[in-house]
Amino acid sequence: MKSVFCLLDTAPYGNEKAFGALNAAAVSLTEMSVTFGFYGDGVYLAAADQDSTELGVPNLSDILYSYGELRVIVHEPSLIERGLFGETLIETIELVDEEDFLEEMENSDFVILF
């Protein structure tokens, strides 16, 4: 089975990149092994208890919970840089260091940047 690594490095709200990326990854699950990587501002999507009602957009953390088979890794140094280390995070994510994050990308057949 082919593998794809989807990299999200932009904030989850304010544009449609994260929403589109999550849906594209979810659709690909039936055909490929999918790993979603949050890097840079993308790590904000790892925060639990998101409330997007005032923004009038879907709650993206709910999408992550809906697709429990979607493997999600989070770049721990990016979390630390943004002061999110120690915050309550979505239970299904995996924190990884720089080396493991890059290794996941390198070992994938395809890398898609969002």
Automatic annotation (TrEMBL):
InterPro entries: DsrEFH-like (IPR027396), Sulphur_relay_DsrE/F-like (IPR003787). Pfam families: DsrE. GO terms for cellular component: cytosol. This is Sulfur reduction protein DsrE. It comes from Methanosarcina mazei (Methanosarcina frisia). The lineage of its organism: Archaea, Methanobacteriati, Methanobacteriota, Stenosarchaea group, Methanomicrobia.
